[in-house]
Amino acid sequence: MRRPKSRAARKQQKNTEFQEIEILNEWIESQKPESGSNPLAIDPLKSKSPIGRIVDPESGVVSFSRYAGARKFYELPISKRTKNGLERGGFKKMTDIQVASLPHALCGRDILGAAKTGSGKTLAFVIPVLEKLHRERWGPEDGVGSIIISPTRELAGQLFDVLKTVGKYHTFSAGLLIGGRKDVDVEKERVNELNILICTPGRLLQHMDETPNFDCSQLQVLVLDEADRILDIGFKKTLNAIVSQLPKRRQTLLFSATQTKSVQDLASLSLKDPEYISVHEKADTATPNRLQQTAMIVPLEQKLDMLWSFIKAHLKSKILVFLSSCKEVKFVFEAFKKLRPGIPLKCLHGRMKQEIRLGIYSQFCESRSVLFSTDVASRGLDFNKAVDWVVQVDCPEDVASYIHRVGRTARYLSGGRSVLFLMPSEMKMLEKLQAAKVPIQFIKANTKRLEPVSSLLSALLVKYPDMQQLAQRAFITYLRSIYIQKDKEIFDVTKLPIDDYSASLGLPMTPKVRFLNQKKKSKIESEKSTIIESETFDGENESAVAKEELLVEDVKDNKEDKDFLLKDAPDLGEGNATETGDIMPATRVLKKKKLKINVHRPVGTRVVFDEEGNTQAPLAMLAEKTSGEIQLDQDKKNEYYKKMREELKQVDKEDKVLERQRLREKRMKKKMKLKKGQREDDDEDEDEYISGSEGEGEADANKKRKRSKIYFHSDSDSDGEKGENEADPAGINAGSISLEEQEQLALKLLNSMHS
Ligand SMILES: Nc1ncnc2c1ncn2[C@@H]1O[C@H](COP(=O)(O)OP(=O)(O)OP(=O)(O)O)[C@@H](O)[C@H]1O
């Protein structure tokens, strides 16, 4: 609403607004819905029935229309400014959560609101915030009137956009206070002038602690979006510290798709007779009706093959892929980008710089692409153009997390699909989801269209040594993520086929995982004692037992894989069928010596061809066929792996020598340039490198590789490599040049620069 130019017109506008506020207050007060009532259960108003203040022409008696049960925004007691904002945003009819909660929220009640993902909870709190401050005639001199807290920065940014749309015609000042921004000092200067703060918990507390005279004593409305997450253990301390600095007399609105009713959780917020509004509590499903959900068994070592095949089969879709750690996201993004699937790739995780995160988020909103993400994108985000698929490569930590992840698709009136990869040991999750009213169908993967990538990944790791470190980190952080999960019924790190998993990432050797060894050790200890008790312990040492355990897991895996691969499965492609398959057992039986293998399984790290030129799994070449059974001698297998390891070590060594030589030459060139008074600006942002997109040229990729290689090199120097250098300088010197040669090279360079 534009400010009138003349004084008289401004006065007139003020008076009109005063009158409007008076009417709104009377309307709200006189038609208050009964506490505990559900406005959704009340009939809608008849069409063409009068709205607002109604004066009987004959008796002159004043009455107000009922707003509990209203289905359209204009039927609510809200200001013209908000109505205009809603109209501008294209919002006319209310969603169920808005119908149920707005009448209670507008009359000042505390709300604990739960509704499915994508059902319009944002407007259910943005409108009451604007209206409360409007009716209180809040101005710049009044300071902070409302605080809206969001668990993630992207979500906070999105809420800010909604507030800007609906609040466009109001005169309040609002600010987005989120971590990762460098301009905290500028924020500190302005924060006291802001009326509405949208913030993440950490940044808000930082202002409370550090900003002089930061004052929230007049706060009217506190909102927690994704409330269960903010009340969760991770934010608990911060939230308690924040709430302790807020006035007790205020309205509090809590919203989430998965709401907490735990008295303990809510006690710190000191809610006053809150309205529990759960519009979909009695619904048949906990997720949106237009969402088609599927789950399938994917053994750990085949997850990347399956993901790659899935992406290749859906090149025209917008796909959101969830992985459990930043390092995994980085690795899969970098590796797949180099393999060029034919669709732009993006990645999002908490370790990226804020500007880049926001950039990636808005790019994904706009275009068809694949976004690899951690749970940072799992809650609240409303990607502008609908997401077609949500793919959960790593199992979510619990049912709530699953619901939020899949909720990034099928929002408001649109449809969407999701697929969950479950390892055989995670099948319990399927039961939990079904028990929580998640209509998820179990399907068999179409392995006919499975395109193995592990061999390509090993080649990548040889070609780009910095990728090896990314793969190692991904490997370790994934195992750690399983290790630290609370739900041990689902997540058991000891059941993971770690050698096969490591090979599937293209790693030549399984990295050592300290916490895993400790866990194994304690497990073995307990197993040992059981065996001793039953007097059958044959005297093998611990490491032999541990090795045995892993080898035996191999055997079982192969059997399972054979089933997995041979089943006649429905299509994984766009129009996939949804036949229910058998659930494979996750338990593993101890066995020894001869290993049965599935020769078709892509377990190797390189492609091997048979005499007819068909690709073969490397181990298949060593297998013997006896009476239809394919068997592999353990010694042969070990020998094969030993040979592979040695080959890779050799290649790795050569690569390192070359790399050191290249770096030395580069340093020399730099020195020369410096001498000439020239400066090189090679300070690059690592995050930028991480978040590039698919389709970059080879030259560009090389440039990036070089940059990150320096980082990789110094990093590895501090680990194992340093020792190697010190112990064996000959390895380095073999590829190096003498001081004389270096001087000659420098002179040549200088001459070429002069000419
Ligand atoms: N009354 C309405 N009319 C039309 N569109 C609406 C209405 N309310 C919300 N929307 C749209 O529905 C989509 C989902 O809304 P919103 O993001 O508020 O959902 P949510 O319930 O908060 O989801 P989540 O639980 O994932 O956070 C948005 O694109 C929003 O613009």
TrEMBL record:
UniProt biased composition (Acidic residues): 680-699
Motif mapping: Q motif: 71-99
Helicase ATP-binding domain mapped to chain residues: 102-277
Domain (Helicase C-terminal) ranges: 299-451
Keyword ATP-binding: yes
EC number, UniProt record: 3.6.4.13
CDD domains (UniProt xref): DEADc_DDX10 (cd17941), SF2_C_DEAD (cd18787)
Pfam families: CTE_SPB4, DEAD, Helicase_C
PANTHER family hit by this protein: RNA HELICASE
Catalytically driven reaction(s): ATP + H2O = ADP + phosphate + H(+)
Family: Belongs to the DEAD box helicase family.
Name of this chain's protein: ATP-dependent RNA helicase
Record's keyword annotation contains S-adenosyl-L-methionine: no
Gene3D superfamilies: P-loop containing nucleotide triphosphate hydrolases
Record domain DEAD-box RNA helicase Q: where: 71-99
Function: RNA helicase.
Keyword set, alphabetical order: ATP-binding, Helicase, Hydrolase, Nucleotide-binding, RNA-binding
Region: Disordered, residue numbers: 663-738
Domain statement: The Q motif is unique to and characteristic of the DEAD box family of RNA helicases and controls ATP binding and hydrolysis.
Biased composition (Basic and acidic residues): 712-725
Organism: Hibiscus sabdariffa
Biased composition (Basic residues): 663-676
